Recover the amino acids of this structure.
């Protein structure tokens, strides 16, 4: 095509009319010289560049194949960027070699294409099965996850209806309610059991939505299936774990109940369970009396040492060991008895005496333990496990015996 | 041989920008064989540079050296047209292309 005086031979040719035609075109039209300098730009082109006067400016030579338009970004004076589709053709402008470029604003179209492409990716990549049907229920599209979940290929699904998946587990009134909800609210969601192609049943969460056009007419229905098979397995495992937790809780409560029953604030949980509380805590009264008795023996032993007296400590120690044995005392009880006694007895005495008590106490406690061990070997053949009723019963007898002893 | 100084103006890290950069790299590697300096300018990051150069559209490739200054727009996929537009065959003298 050529625009110039030599072409003014057409019957209706009017140069001004042609320029007005170019000016009125919705696409931007730009004529460029061989260096890429703008020779002419129509109104649409100048609007694209935010009203800049383009003639004389260097746009650059559009080096694109005419048959394959490319997208370029058009930058206006405010720095705004629009996407334009660029097409070019060689052109003779008033006798000089030129290029005519058409620029079509495609920002919105490209954005829409981008959204559609994204929607396509979501459709293809979703883990949920997606079924698109016409309003009459005929399937027009399914995604790959549909095939994964149901076993039916796209080809098998197309033209069919979702009745393909009917399991018979839901009755007619159920479907009536479902369709009433879709018709009334445009939406339904619920849990149903469906059948795969191989005949196996599976639980699914199904959502059905109406798709409407701008006029409000329902054009499609979209069903989204979330396969609940794994979810149900997980749920069963969770319930199992919950049951086990409840059982553990019961055991813990039982331990606590026994713990409270032992009436001791510092009783260990396990100790409470088996009744093996230390004597000092489970039978404080009798323990105090034993401290008193053992204290006297300690005094006597120190006297024997200091005054060369001959108090009969070993017999008393044996009697004490027997009482401890009846109370099912252990090594810890003896150690507590010893240290408690030393603490009390050495409190208000001269340092020398306190030191003597400690020294003599070392022998005394070992002797007491030896006597206790002998008692157990003689009577039980082993150290008995503590049973609270035996301890309670024997505590009274020990206390009675303690009170009879001379102080 | 004169070294070519080429600057490519692109807009953001879009597939279109990347295509332009790839095409330019290909042209430089295949046709200019080490006798070039190539710079890529993102007009979103350096708008002033684009303003100074009065860049109206992207991708725009500017040949700053050797003279004459030339600029082409488009995705640079057609090597022959790009080289022709940049006047490179002419500037190269005996290095004229015979592919077109």
């Amino acid at each position: 095509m050529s625009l110039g005086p030599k072409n003014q031979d057409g019957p209706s040719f009017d140069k001004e009319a042609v320029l007005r035609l170019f000016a009125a075109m919705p696409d931007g039209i730009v004529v460029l010289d061989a260096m890429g300098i703008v020779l002419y730009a129509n109104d649409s082109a100048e609007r694209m560049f935010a009203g800049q006067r383009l003639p004389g400016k260097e746009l650059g030579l559009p080096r694109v194949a005419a048959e394959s338009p490319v997208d370029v970004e058009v930058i206006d004076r405010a720095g705004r960027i629009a996407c334009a589709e660029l097409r070019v053709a060689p052109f003779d402008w008033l006798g000089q070699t030129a290029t005519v470029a058409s620029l079509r604003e495609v920002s919105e179209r490209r954005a829409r294409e981008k959204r559609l492409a994204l929607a396509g990716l979501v459709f293809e990549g979703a883990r949920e099965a997606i079924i698109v049907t016409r309003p009459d229920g005929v399937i027009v599209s399914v995604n790959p996850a549909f095939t994964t979940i149901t076993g039916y290929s796209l080809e098998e699904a197309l033209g069919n209806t979702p009745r393909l998946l009917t399991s018979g587990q839901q009755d007619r009134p159920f479907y009536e309610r479902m369709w009433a909800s879709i018709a009334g609210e445009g939406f339904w969601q619920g849990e149903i059991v469906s059948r795969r192609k191989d005949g196996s049943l599976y639980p699914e969460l199904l959502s059905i939505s109406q798709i409407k056009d701008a006029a409000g007419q329902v054009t499609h229905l979209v069903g989204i299936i979330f396969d609940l098979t794994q979810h149900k397995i997980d749920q069963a495992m969770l319930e199992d774990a919950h049951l086990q937790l409840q059982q553990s809780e019961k055991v813990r409560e039982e331990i606590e109940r026994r713990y409270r029953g032992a009436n001791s604030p510092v009783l260990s949980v396990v100790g409470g369970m088996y009744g093996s509380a230390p004597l000092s805590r489970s039978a404080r009264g009798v323990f105090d009396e034993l401290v008193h008795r053992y204290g006297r023996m300690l005094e006597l032993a120190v006297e024997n040492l200091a005054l060369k007296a001959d108090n009969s400590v070993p017999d008393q120690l044996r009697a004490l060991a027997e009482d401890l044995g009846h109370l099912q005392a252990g090594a810890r009880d003896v150690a507590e008895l010893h240290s408690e006694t030393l603490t009390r007895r050495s409190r208000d005495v001269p340092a020398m005496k306190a030191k003597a008590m400690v020294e003599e106490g070392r022998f005394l406690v070992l002797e007491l333990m030896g006597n206790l061990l002998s008692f157990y070997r003689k009577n039980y053949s082993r150290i008995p496990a503590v049973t609270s009723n035996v301890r309670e019963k024997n505590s009274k007898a020990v206390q009675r015996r303690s009170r009879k002893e001379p102080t | 041989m004169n070294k070519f100084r080429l600057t490519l103006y692109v807009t953001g890290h879009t597939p279109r920008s990347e295509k332009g950069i790839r095409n330019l790299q290909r042209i430089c590697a295949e046709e200019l064989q080490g006798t070039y300096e190539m710079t890529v300018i993102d007009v979103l990051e350096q708008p002033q540079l684009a303003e100074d150069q009065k860049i109206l559209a992207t991708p725009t490739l500017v040949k700053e050296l050797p003279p004459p200054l030339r600029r082409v727009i488009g995705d640079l996929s057609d090597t022959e047209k790009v080289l022709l537009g940049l006047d490179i065959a002419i500037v190269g003298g005996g290095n004229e292309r015979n592919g077109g």
In short: The domain at 2-104 of chain A is CATH 3.30.450.20 (Beta-Lactamase).
